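Q: What structure does this chain adopt?
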Amino acid sequence: MAKNEVKTVYVCTECGNTQSKWTGKCKECGAWDSFEEEISTQSTDKGYRGVSVVASSEARLISKIDAETNKDVRIETGISEFDRALGGGIVKGSVVLISGEPGIGKSTILLQICKNLDKNRKILYVSGEESSSQIKLRAQRLGVDGDNVYLLCETNIESVMAYVDKLSPDLLIIDSIQTSYSPSSESIPGSVTQVKQCALSLIRKTKDSSVATVIVGHVNKDGGIAGPKVLEHMVDVVLTFEGERTQFYRLIRASKNRFGSTNEIGVFEMGDRGLIEVTDPSRALLSEKPKNVSGSCTVCVHEGSRPILAEIQALVSKTVFPAPKRVVTGLDFNRVSILLAVIEKRLGIYLSSQDVYLNVIGGLRLDEPSSDLAIVMSIISAYRNIEIDDKTVALGEVGLLGEVRSVSFVASRIKEASRLGYKRIIIPKTSYPQNLPPLPDDFKIITVSSITEIIKLFS
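A:
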């Protein structure tokens, strides 16, 4: 009879590489300080230690498989911004992983989904972090009190699977995967082995029973999803909550989506009764934009299928330190450093003795290169203390030579700027759209090919 030997191993949280000793750097993926200590149980049987593989389905020609395209494949949550980020709703038989900072609203939005689906869907809400009375108090505040929402406070994944077989729910919610454990593993809950094993059990059950599953994941100190990186590869959709707990707005972004676009975002505002949808984010983000102030420029980015206007603010002041400070919020720090170097080299504006602070209002994060021109204009405006017309929108990618390069979806960006009452938009010369939407007579489209041409536009 085979015996089990218990030993300590170290597992990389990024790639799952296992080794007997701790090292600072993983030899497989190159990640630093990524090894965690775990207890491993190994069989001492010298015979064959593999498992027999039994096919659970037959191989079929792809041309013979009928694709399900009807609306019943997706479960619409009743929250349009959440469904937008998912691509139209939660697909049956899929696993959605949602993560974010503590207190940002993950459990809140899941209870709101329970409220919307209560009338025609059976839901099993599994919590491993709170008691039934705690969840009931929050549910009462959000107005969740239905006959089809089952609450289970359990961390044993095998018990959860038994309840799934017993209730046959349409939607399964696991809050959270880091608190779940499998009795077959001796590792502690939240370890790499436990997270992988519990996630694999949930995915197998989801595919076999066609139940839609939503998993809540914790984040680590770096903002990434805690646990093994392979967890993100195993699930079908990865949603990330963005924003700060002290700010009004919350953003849900899909960093992975097998059934839709990964560029869509959902915008919410945190209120006393939960998360409130922001159906017109451009107007909301610009509602408090100051007038006749230097250092502010409006940009139009394209998130998925819709354009969004946002305000970029810059503050440039003489430094009192040997090295100038660079503080960036909502933008890529390395990209801003490159643009500062381009401004010094191509425009002769020396910022090596100036502290530079940049911020995107509303908690929005801009990763699109089309925001480069607005960043440059806001920095120049703050440095020279020259106001930019508050009815001006700027967009364009800036290269290392100072050229303003083309961007996509220019026509829809122009239409959005016109809808919100803006009178002037600055675009790259190579991006002038062929089919312009109907625009007011006083709306101007200004084209530039280099950042040297924007100095005269500050009046």
